[in-house]
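Regression test attached.
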Amino acid sequence: MELQPIYIQILALVIFTIGLIVALSRRNIFFVLMGIELALNAVNLSFVGFAKTLPADMSVAGQIFPLFLIAVAAAEACVGLALVILIFRNRESVDSDNYSNMKG
Amino acid sequence: MLLHLLVLAPFAAAILMIATSKEDPKSSSRLAFLFGFAFVAMSIALIASGNQATEAIEWFHIPGAKGAVYYYLYSHGLGAWMVFLSSALSLVALMTARNSLDKNYRNFAIGIFALMGAMNGTFLAADAVLFFFFFEAMVFPAAVLIAGFGGKERRKAAMTFAIYTLVGSAPMMVALWYLITLADNSLVLSLAVALQNLDPATQTTLLLCFLLAFLVKTPIFPFHGWQAITYAEAPAPLSAILTGAMSKAGVFGFIAWILPIFPLSMEVVDSMMWLGLVTAIYGALMALRATDGKKLLAFSSMSHLGLAVAGVFSLSESMLPAVLVLLVAHGLSAGAQFYLMGIAERFAGTRDIEQLGGLAARNPVFGSLFGFLAVLSLAVPGTAGFVGEFTVLMSLWDMGPLPALAAGLCLILSATYMLRFVQKVIFGKPAREYEDGKRMTAIEGSSIGVMGVLLLVFGMHPAFITNALQLFDESAVQEMNKLTHPAEDAQTVEASADTTGEAIADENIAAVAQPMTDDDLRQLDSNLKANGFSDEERASLIAQLKNMSESEVADAQEEGALEQNEANVKEASENE
Amino acid sequence: MLALIYFVVLAAIAVVAALGVLFSKHPLYGGLSLVLTMLSLAGIYGLIGSPFIGVVQIMVYAGAIMMLLVFVISVLNAAKDSKTPMFDGVSIFVVIAALALAGLVGFALVLSPMGFDVTTLRGSVEMTSKNLFDTSKTGPGYFVLFEVLGLLLLSSMGAAVLMAKKRLSSEVSEEDHKEDK
Amino acid sequence: MTNLPLWIIPLFPLLGTILLGAIAVISSGSKKGPSEGFVGALSVLFPVISFVCVVLLAFGMPEEGIRETLCNWIDIPMLKVDIGFLFDGLSRVMLLFVTGIGSLIALYSIGYMHGDRGFTRFFAYINLFLFSMIVLVLSDSLLLTFLGWEGVGLCSYLLIGFWNHDLNNCKAANKAFIVNRVGDIGFLLGMLCLATLGGSAILNYEALNKFVEMLIAGGHVELAAPILMIAGLLFFVGCTGKSAQIPLLTWLPDAMAGPTPVSALIHAATMVTSGVYLLARLSRMFVLVPEVLLVILIVGMLTAFWAAVAGLFQNDIKKVLAYSTISQLGYMFMAAGASAFDASIFHVFTHAFFKAALFLGAGAVIHSLAGEQDMRRMGGLIKKTPVTACVMIFAFLAIIGFPGFAGFWSKDLILERLYTNAPFGEFFYFAGLLTAVITAVYMGRLIIMTFFGEYRGSKESEEHIHEAPASMLVPMVILAFGAVFAGYLWADSMGIKFFANTLAPVVGEAQSYSLGAAIHHVNALTFACFGTAAALLGMIIAYVVYGRARIPQISAKESSAPVGSKADWTFFFDYIHEIFITITKAAAFIADMVVDKILQAIQWTVGSIAEIVGDGVSTFQVRKVRVQLTLSLLGVAALVAVVLLTGGLF
């Protein structure tokens, strides 16, 4: 019984699914943001896990890309939180269903 | 250079027009006229200078396609004449709109120039994707102009027009994309080659997709729902352009894209021809009942274009020049009639022909012009319309007497509705009292009059039109080949292209009537023998033929003799 | 074998913490569980030979981003919203859809064979910096991406500042309110 | 003087058209209009010049005629046609009387149209008509003839509807044009039919004749006969349209709505005879298909008889003349059907004189009565307008075939040829003779009701009756001379065969082919006696029936159209046409109200379905963003499933 890459992938999949469920099923806007973070983390893990199955040069991309993803996540969190605060000031609510004023 | 100018300069002109004053129609109209004249002059130069092509510039790559999409313009006689129609009608539209629109003249001119550029692009594009691009681009300025300057139901009309034409050409886009993923690039020849390798079912599907776009644009019978309301609600100058030039894009598509690309089966050709004839008769019947003057003209153009499409799909030798003359004649006469109807509407305040009447007495110059153009659109001999319709009828006669009879019925009906139209609009007494609106100005009258005179001139000497016609000549085919296959297998492509483009390609070959040679006579002799002619009969006939072809210098007689022996042979076989 | 045990432990912690995010009522607890997930993921990174990413994960993700989130949650008192139910009818639908997707993807994963490669490069600082800042023409060109990312961060910071500025005046927010209507 | 180019003949009327048309358009804005003297002089000048040209050419014409190709017209594959002119015996005769009578009638019109608002326009049309007519008879190919053919139809339309403020005139004009159009399509299809046989070159008359010669010489007539028969029938349809034969004859009586000079020029003397001209021109082709000739013969006979009877019931003086014209055209067609093309052209020639004289006389009567056309309000005019009456009476004697007058020679010739040439000759001869009797009756009725007895109009209008001005009388008198003496160009029983000789190069060969060797030699005198007897009998009947002032008094309101069973007889073919019109209208109705509505319904249904679906989806979207996202999640799942199931495309 050795560690297999498939275990890593399944872990990533589980976390990703939980992230999706959090993001979509919770109505609190903070949980939505956290769900997205969770899903992003799972993707990072998947990248690295796959990178380890590739030979020398090809494994580089999979290990660099998570760095970029983390940076993008940072930017996303920054803007997302600012938005949440702004909307919260206007609506006095963290219920994401209340935010929808998209008119078709 | 000329080609680039004709396609791109209208857009530049449209942008330049933005710089003119919106409030002062005088200054902007002067600039617009200047541009308009320049474009007409360029289009005449284009016709005069014969076939030409630009350098093929790589434009962009479509994902999945093998080759690049080229910005590649190519002018042949057909396209050049259509460009002439679009620029000439645009000029007259700018002139007539000058009196009807005051404040927004500038915006109108911008729209017209954009439309003209798109139309010119459609008629000159040698690359299928480029063609499609312009084909779609035509819709937008036209729809915007209808929505901005039309009559009471202008929004509905613009929506109907845009949705119908865009939805109609959507399948073509898909089919085109599919084809260019298989072809080396998107020029006609490579598309035709690519299509040959497909199985028949796929070919038919692709053909139907292409046909639909042109059927809607022309429009042909079950797809004409947009036409009447659009032409009626659009401002009259725009209606003139729509019917005179834009609807030609449909027929042009049949000739320049469908025929060379698709190997057509007999059923398709037959059903398309009948569809055209049904459109012709249906349009004429609808025109008989129409009470809205512009709708009447719309149905009349539908009828004429149906005839043109029927002519295209008769696929006879003389089809191409015949249809071209018919299209030019129809473009000029229908355009002029729309302008006149617009002036009548402005003058009397209505376009309901039951409400009009007596304009000949109230406004004699207008009345004479109106009557003159109505007569010209009736295909009276001596006008271009006659040459077109007679030759189209002749092509149809090739397919059998029944299509020709149907077309003849259509001509009778066209006389009926046109006379009714004339009678209701300019004769009799007005049905109600009204204040006279703006009269026809000298510039409008003379520009429309020039169109009438052009019709007469083309009618007496249609060679002006037909001489420009060298569709798909040798050099162009080679040019395209070079682009398609840089060096190695140009040979094979040419061979296969010849077979696919046969319907078109043998036009030029057949034009040259050969004098009789001894071989022909021998051939004839054996034919006759096979058909059971006795020796003396053969000898006498051949002696006669020899005498005729020797004594007669004029090639007319030669052709007569040639045809005669063909006819004899044909009859002989019938006799058996 | 040892690696597997470490992995199982870390994975269990990560999954449990992730489930904690899902079921916690107050966002603050949710945020803290999320931090826990990230820490255990960082451990897994180290375990499979990418220590640099693990370190960055701890420093940037768990350290900076999540702390920002937790900070905001504590600043906004109303973040805990007792009126809003944790789950509603839609949630069931979501769970079914997500599980369906997960099942399918998992099925695909299980079907595809894969194994660790012995020649795989270790995701050390050295390897990362060599590739990331390789400015030679033949190189992978990550540095351009790196610069672009810098711009992205800068602009997102600017955006955040702009939105924060609006917050300062109450009139503006009223206007916003109108606009939103 | 034969070095005159041929194109000069149509050139002058064309110039006249352009000039007068320009004057008409330019002056239409002004109140007063251009000077009538100036315009009148111009409009007579151009026809006269071309008449002079024709005369000069006619005297120097070589036996085989002059051919001249002006330029190329249509040149596309399959169709090469030149603009060329052919001046031979046939076109010489036609041109002489077309330009001659045209000039006279232009002169007459100056007086008749005096003071009309559209004076200039009228003469522009007249010149255009002469141009078209000259092109029709002068052209050397069918296509160019067709140009003239439609051109004269167009002018006829314009001139019938000349007083276009009255919609009834417009309707008559429309009817004329549309009925003619039906015939024209026949002509057009006939041309196409010929072209399939021998290419477009065969549309040239000379090539056609050569082709026919070749067929005869090669003995292939029976091979080509089916196609030639169709072509012949189609051409004949064209002729029935233009020459008002059964079944396309209803337009001619209505066409009398136009000014009287127009009726005289177009609807009596020239245009309506172009059908006969075409038959003569294509005689070489027609004689190959005797079946078609038989059809022509029967149609001609029926037309002649029917129109003569219908003429008996008319009260409108111009309508009587219109039906008489149809009847006489029927004679000409009978002659052509009996392959006596020269006789039919001869009748065209004499008919042009006496019918034009009759129409001009009727015009003068109408003019003097200030527009009154109903014969029941005339009578006794011989005392007030003696010159007009004399002209009319001479022309009357000519039309009934009174010995010595023009009609006598031509009509007798036709009857004689009918007897000798036609199949069932006796029957057709008898029908022709009967028609001649009826002709004499209705023409006698016209003369009696108009010129004899008491004046039956109102008293105050009697004061204003006056003789027409000189410009009207001069042409009338000249035409009356023609009506008397034109027949002596071919006085068969006197041995003068000048006319037959001039036509011989054109139609002689055809006739001899048709008749073969067996030419009956009969005593011309016998036929002359029968003819004279018929005319006298008709006159006596007319005198007995109408001479004793048995004309019922009528109220002022009553229309001049016949009523009751007489109307049924008169309008029989109108009723038949009505059927076709109704069918067309029904088809249009179905197209408009059924087919189009169905298409619109489909269009509307598709549109509204799209709208409903769009609306539904958009309301769905607005409320629940999460639901929508989850849906997209499911979509992704579905895609994954597809990829798994298909194993991936690439």
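Expected vs. actual: identical. Residues 578-646 of chain D form one domain.
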